[in-house]
Amino acid sequence: MAPAGTASDPLDRPHFIGIGGAGMSGVAKVLAMRGARVSGSDTKDSPIVGALRESGATVYIGHSAGNIATDATSVVISSAIRPDNLELVTARERGIPVVHRSDALAALMDGSRPIAVAGTHGKTTTTSMLAVSLRTLGLDPSYVIGGDLDAPGSSAVHGDGEIFVAEADESDRSFHKYAPEVAIILNVELDHHANYASMDEIHESFETFVGRIRPGGALVISADHPGARELTARVTGREGLRVLTYGADEGADVRVLAIEPHGLTSEVTVRLAESLGGAELTFTVSVPGRHYALNAVAALTAGAALGVPPRELAPALASYTGVKRRLQLKGTAAGVQVIDSYAHHPTEIAADLEAIRGGAGEGRVLVVFQPHLFSRTQELGAEMGEALALADASVVLDIYPAREDPVPGVTSAMVIDAAARQGADVTAEHDRGAVPELIAGMAKPGDLVLTMGAGDVTDLGPEILARLQSPEN
Questions:
Q1: What element of type H or E holds 388?
Q2: Of the residues 87, 126, 127, 167, which is catalytic?
Q3: What CA–CA distance (Å, rounded) separates 39 from 58?
Q4: d(CA 133, CA 295)
Q5: Of residues 73, 90, 124, 411, which has the active-site annotation?
Q6: Is 332 annotated as a binding residue?
Q7: Record-annotated residues binding ATP (predicted)?
Q8: Is 123 a catalytic residue?
Q9: Predicted local distance difference test score (pLDDT) of residue 194
């Protein structure tokens, strides 16, 4: 594929199927900002679709063969697009090149100094921290993030600086397409069970990603996470690869000396290895929880690897105040805070519950959890339930299928039963519309309510707040 912006570029007049998706919309927006004539379709209108239209993209609601312009140079898809999608079938019949989202993103990064952020958890937060802090320093990076920073469509920007920060998704092995100057690997765990059968397959996939780092580039990787340590052992010694570790481990190149919680923020102290200047730095992370603090340290280490002075980057990290769906405060009503969490893997669920516990004070933590994907629930349902036991009470909805068909015998009962075995206060609710009333009856002033999961559970936050505000509450 020619670099984006050349005369022979297939991304000159691209059509995106599912353009409103978190990953697709960012690539489409950057292309539009670079002058490409972007079109796309999605199943429904949304604020993200509106933001894309404001960026100059033509967006159709519903899939139709007529949506694809006669002079379209490519059709861009993600792994979520089924082979029988009408527009995809039409593109193949017309001989229009079909480009995977990851190939399009790789083309966008060509000619820049890319930082690719990988790992089973924390990619969106860490990418966002880097994008915001580098922007604060006036470096004007380009970035593509898997979630909005604030307003709809803020998941991506074309900047005039030389740095390009992007999430590197391991779920479908598409991160093998990128050639970063600096790669971050936050953690390595078994997930995406439809594509990976074992931890060995996961490690092999991450090894391939590490092999894509440009000669003379750097791998920034956790010194604390067991899966990451195993990966470090596998790749250390590769010619032309600089490995920088971060974490609480005594041998870490950026060693975390302390993480002190202060309500919904943290103060972090690190010591840099001599190769990075040898300084001791203390800085603020404006979101709660140890895992978010470690994400900030990963961002600091990556910036240092790229030559950004740590003494300047550390205070700039405080300018990151969160991303939508990552412990995002939706509002307060009747003395109850309602917070939205994207957590859907057991490790993420436990981390967010531990983080929010620190800000709950004497109040209770109540969770509305929606399991995501039949394949994930089949493999990790028990662990999800065990993690939910950290809440004071949970309401568990039916599984959100996303792109998957049902699996016989796999239901949210797998999560509920596991939570109950841990002595948790857990309630099954099959009627999503009944949740606001149910939570209004449970919540008391001072409590925190988390809507948690990667599906449409996020839409319940405003409904819960409205019910809490109603006179009958």
A1: helix 374-388
A2: 167
A3: 5
A4: 13
A5: 124
A6: no
A7: 119-125
A8: yes
A9: 62
Q: Is 177 among the catalytic positions? A: no
Tokens found for residue 9: 């570029």
pLDDT of amino acid 64: 95
269 annotated among ligand-binding-site residues: no
Q: Which residues of 273-364 form beta strands (DSSP E)?
A: 280-285, 326-333, 336-341
73 assigned binding-site residue: no
126/118 Cα distance (integer angstroms): 9
Give the separation between CA 123 and CA 424, rounded to whole angstroms: 30
Question: How far is Cα 118 from Cα 186, in angstroms, rounded to an integer?
Answer: 6
Any alpha helices (H) in 397-454, and if so which ranges? 413-421, 435-442
pLDDT digits (tens, 9 = 90+) for 128-160: 999 999 999 999 999 999 766 665 567 899 999
- What does the block give as tokens for 267? 């103060």
Of the residues 123, 177, 324, 330, which is catalytic?
A: 123
The pTM for the full model equals 0.74
The answer to whether 40 is a known ligand-binding residue is: no
Q: Which residues have a Cβ under 8 Å from the Cβ of 138 and sit 6 or more positions away?
A: none
* DSSP H or E segment with residue 157: strand 156-157
167 catalytic? Reply is yes
Predicted confidence (pLDDT) at residue 261 exceeds the cutoff of 90: no
Alpha-helix residue ranges (DSSP H) falling in 22-110: 22-33, 47-54, 86-94, 101-109
Pairwise CA distance, residues 299 & 222, whole Å: 11
Token pair recorded at residue 411: 């239901």
8 A C-beta contact, residue 65 and residue 5? no
Three-state DSSP class for 131? helix
Query: In 181-309, which residue ranges form alpha helices assigned H by DSSP?
Result: 199-211, 226-235, 290-305
Which residue from 328, 326, 363 is spatially nearest to 348, judged by alpha carbons? 326
Kindly state the average pLDDT of the residues 211-234. 96
445 residue type, one letter: P
Q: In Å, how far from its chain's centre is CA 252?
A: 25
pLDDT tens digits along 332-365: 999 999 999 888 889 889 888 987 876 667 889 9
Over residues 289-346, the pLDDT tens digits come to 788 899 999 999 999 999 999 999 999 998 887 665 667 888 899 999 999 988 888 9
Q: Is the pLDDT of residue 8 over 70?
A: no
> What 3-state DSSP class applies to 269?
strand
Burial code (b: 16+ CB inside 10 Å, e: under 16) for 317-353 equals bbebebbbbbbbebeebeebbbbbbbbbbbbbbbbbb
pLDDT of residue 7: 39
Mean pLDDT of all residues in 46-71: 94
Q: Judge whether residue 452 has pLDDT over 80.
A: yes
**Would the annotation count 43 as a binding residue?**
no
Please indicate if the annotation marks 125 as binding a ligand: yes
**Checking DSSP bridges between strand 142-144 and strand 326-333, what pairing results, if any?**
unpaired
Q: Is 40 helix (H, G, I), strand (E, B) or coil?
A: strand
Distance CA 457, CA 46 (A): 16
